[in-house]
Design brief:
This protein is an all-alpha fold. It contains five helices and no strands. It is globular, with a radius of gyration of 13 Å.
């Protein structure tokens, strides 16, 4: 379980420079992209369930309003899944 999150963290360092924004984005992508439950994510990041729900909600609203953020997330998704495909094919 730690391996995908570590890979995700390396990818996020390229796209998001602020530590706070990267942390919120990491929580959002862990729930959405890695399909982890909110309780599991809260336990891993040592946050309350409300903070995880808040991060998911904020990023979801931002995704609907901000086209640049949408393109940034698509690039992160593509790079993450491309890396995983390379590891699986090797």
């Amino acid at each position: 379980m730690k391996q995908p999150r570590k890979c995700l963290n390396l990818i996020l360092k390229k796209y998001e420079k602020s530590d706070d924004k990267r942390a919120v984005l990491k929580v959002y992508l862990t729930v959405v992209m890695l399909h982890n439950s909110i309780a599991e994510t809260a336990k891993f990041f040592k946050l309350s369930d409300k903070k995880v729900v808040s991060a998911v909600t904020v990023c979801g609203v931002r995704l609907q309003k901000d086209r640049f953020f949408e393109k940034q997330l698509k690039a992160i998704f593509n790079e993450f899944f491309f890396d995983n495909q390379l590891k699986l094919s090797a």
